[in-house]
């Protein structure tokens, strides 16, 4: 009874960004959502995000192929997006607020035995790539690891006074693409912070660079390991308005899935918004 009560108390306490370091368990998160077994297949949400990102990257491959640098902002402990991005970019800069998330990425990058086994999930991703008949996991992993070695792994914070980067200088040569998934709604406490963050993303992009944001729609809370984390509710119009307000992005393209919802999330769908810097 005591343990049950304790769990309920934890679930009722909606944690904020500042609680991520102490209460977000990346190992539990990976085991819950990224382990692929016959009885534990990736969710339809993962399927939606992967399929749409593959489509967008392929449609714009002439603009992206062979470009130098991409930033994944708020990567968490996850290498899903990075695997796809590494096929187009020579350098991947990964950043996250929580040091333990970055530690798990570093373990995979260093090929340590303790690293999370991404191979089954990577194979799930490769099965979604219709444009590549070879689908050689060894080559995909090699490109990813090299892109991570060429890039940087560092902390970030949307609440920074002068920069999104905590322990890394912004590059003089800006990014060809910025990608973020399920981060802004969790990291930004207000719509002003959200707008400022998207403004900063735009400033970090080269002309012609692409900003792509994957989000849960109209969510207020998501649960991981008996803890509830507050989320800023966002939808297509909020993101569109934020893009337009930068004055530096093309009209955003939005794709959404009304039936898709992250199993830990309390929203009403998922969406991807992207635009190019003018």
From TrEMBL:
<dbReference type="Pfam" id="PF01234">
    <property type="entry name" value="NNMT_PNMT_TEMT"/>
</dbReference>
<comment type="similarity">
    <text>Belongs to the class I-like SAM-binding methyltransferase superfamily. NNMT/PNMT/TEMT family.</text>
</comment>
<keyword id="KW-0949">S-adenosyl-L-methionine</keyword>
<keyword id="KW-0808">Transferase</keyword>
<dbReference type="InterPro" id="IPR000940">
    <property type="entry name" value="NNMT_TEMT_trans"/>
</dbReference>
<keyword id="KW-0489">Methyltransferase</keyword>
<dbReference type="InterPro" id="IPR029063">
    <property type="entry name" value="SAM-dependent_MTases_sf"/>
</dbReference>
<dbReference type="InterPro" id="IPR053384">
    <property type="entry name" value="SAM-dep_methyltransferase"/>
</dbReference>
<dbReference type="GO" id="GO:0005829">
    <property type="term" value="C:cytosol"/>
</dbReference>
<dbReference type="GO" id="GO:0008170">
    <property type="term" value="F:N-methyltransferase activity"/>
</dbReference>
<dbReference type="GO" id="GO:0032259">
    <property type="term" value="P:methylation"/>
</dbReference>
<protein>
    <submittedName>
        <fullName>Uncharacterized protein</fullName>
    </submittedName>
</protein>
């Amino acid at each position: 009874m005591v343990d049950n009560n304790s769990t309920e108390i934890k679930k009722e306490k909606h944690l904020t960004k500042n609680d991520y370091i102490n209460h977000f368990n990346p190992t539990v998160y990976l085991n819950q959502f990224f382990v692929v077994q016959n009885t534990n297949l990736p969710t339809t949400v993962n399927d939606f995000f992967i399929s749409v990102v593959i489509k967008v990257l392929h449609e714009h491959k002439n603009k992206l192929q062979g470009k130098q640098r991409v930033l994944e902002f708020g990567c968490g402990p996850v290498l899903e997006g990075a695997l796809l991005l590494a096929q187009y970019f020579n350098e991947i800069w990964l950043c996250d607020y929580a040091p333990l998330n970055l530690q798990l990425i570093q373990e995979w990058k260093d090929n340590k035995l303790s690293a999370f086994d991404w191979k089954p999930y990577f194979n799930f991703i490769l099965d979604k790539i219709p444009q590549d008949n070879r689908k050689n996991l060894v080559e995909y992993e090699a490109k990813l690891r090299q892109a991570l070695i060429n890039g940087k792994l560092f902390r970030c914070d949307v609440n920074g006074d002068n920069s999104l980067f905590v322990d890394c200088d912004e590059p003089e040569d800006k990014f060809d693409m910025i990608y973020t998934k399920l981060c802004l709604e969790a990291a930004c406490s207000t719509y002003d912070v959200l707008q400022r963050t998207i403004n900063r993303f735009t400033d970090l992009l080269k002309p012609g660079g692409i900003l792509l944001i994957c989000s849960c729609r109209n969510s207020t809370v998501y649960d991981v390991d008996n803890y509830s984390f507050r989320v800023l509710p966002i939808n297509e119009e909020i993101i569109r308005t934020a893009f337009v307000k930068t004055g530096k992005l093309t009209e955003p393209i939005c794709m959404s899935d009304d039936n898709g919802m992250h199993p830990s999330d309390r929203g009403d769908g998922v969406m991807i918004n992207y635009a190019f810097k003018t």
